[in-house]
Amino acid sequence: RGAEPVADGGEEAMSPRGPRKRLTADDYVQLMPIGTPIDVALDRAFKKLGIPRFGGASGRGWSSNAVFMSCPERYHLSTRKSRIDETVEPEGRAVGALFHAFMALHYFALIGGDDKFPGVAHPSVADALATPEQLREAVYDEKANAQWVSEAWRLFHTYAHRYENDYIEPLAVEHWVEGKHDTARYDLIARVLPNEAGIVPGIYNIDHKTAASNNETFRTAWSNDPEFLTQMLVWKEAKLDKLFGPLQGVLMNGIVKTQTVQFHRLVIPPNWRLVREHDRELRVSQAEKAVCQATGYWPMRGRAHGCIFRYGKCEYYEECAS
Fold it and tell me: Per residue in 216-262, pLDDT tens?
C-alpha cells in the first residue's frame, strides 16, 4: 500500500533531499486528477454514515511482510510515509477496495443476531449498519472516480444476484486476529451448508479475490499462496478452532471483471507442512528486518525486477532514482 493520508499538522518526513511536509487528505484530493483517492473517500463515507470502517489496511500482516520481502527499501519508505507519486492510484486496487467494502456490509447484515461467538462483532438486528447502496452513494458524494465506483458496484450487484440463495452462512466479517508473529484479517468466516457445488460442509475462511482474467493461474494457483498460508498459520496460533470449529480450509471466492462477470470458487485445504515452511520463512524475514533496523541499511531489492510490482511501477520510484 502507498502512504496513508494523515491529519493536518503531522510531523515532517525525511527524504534524500531534506524534510518534506506530510500530505493531508485534502492535499491528496487536490493532487489526484481522477477524483478523491478511494481510501480517502471510503474513510469519509464511513465516517459520514457513522459506522465502523470496513476494508482498508489490515495493519501488521502479510501485506506488510510482502512489501519487505519484495524490497526492504520500499518497506522502509512506506513506514516513513515519505514522498510518493501521489497522483497515481491503481484502478485494480481501487475497485477491489470498494468491492470488499460492499461485500463486508452485505455479509455483516446476514449474520444472525445471537451472540454465539464472544469477541466477534455481530449486528443485533439485520439493519444494524448502512447498506451497500448507502455506502455507494456516500462514496459518490465524496467525488471518488465515478467509473471505478460504478465498476465495483457492477461486480457486487452481479455477485449478490448470482448468490442470492447461497450455501454460505456468515459467522464473522473482517475478523482481525493476532498470532505469535503475525496478524490476519479474514474477509469472511462462514459455515458452508450442504450444497450441490461439491464443497464439503464446515467452517471456512472465505477470501474475496477480484481479477481481470479467468485464466488458469487465477483458477488453480492458490495452494502455496503466502496470504492464505499466513491466515492458516494465525488461525492455528490463535486457536480459532475453539471459537468457530475445525477449519476445512480457505474458500477462494473469485470474481472476474470481464464484460459478463464470471465467478469461480476454489477450496484450498490446510497443508500444515507448507504452513510450517511459511512460518520459518517469516521468521527469517523478521530477522533480516532486525538487521536492517540495527544497521540503518535497507537493500533496494526491487531493482532485480525493474522496481515493477503488482500494480506497476513502485510508488517510490522517483525518490529512489533522485
Answer: 888 888 888 889 999 999 999 999 999 999 999 999 999 999 999 99
7 exposure class (CB count in 10 Å sphere: 0-12, 13-18, 19+): exposed
Which residues does 166 contact at the CB level (< 8 Å), separation at least 6? none
Contact in structure between 207 and 156 (CB atoms under 8 Å): no
Give the burial class of 107: count Cβ atoms within 10 A of its Cβ; 0-12 exposed, 13-18 middle, 19 or more buried: buried
**Cα distance between residue 85 and residue 315, in whole Å:** 5
Q: Which residues pair with 204 in a beta bridge?
A: 190, 249
Read off the amino acid at residue 222. Answer: W
Predicted model pTM: 0.78
Instruction: Note the pLDDT tens digit of each residue in 64-105.
Output: 788 888 888 888 888 775 444 444 578 888 999 999 999 999
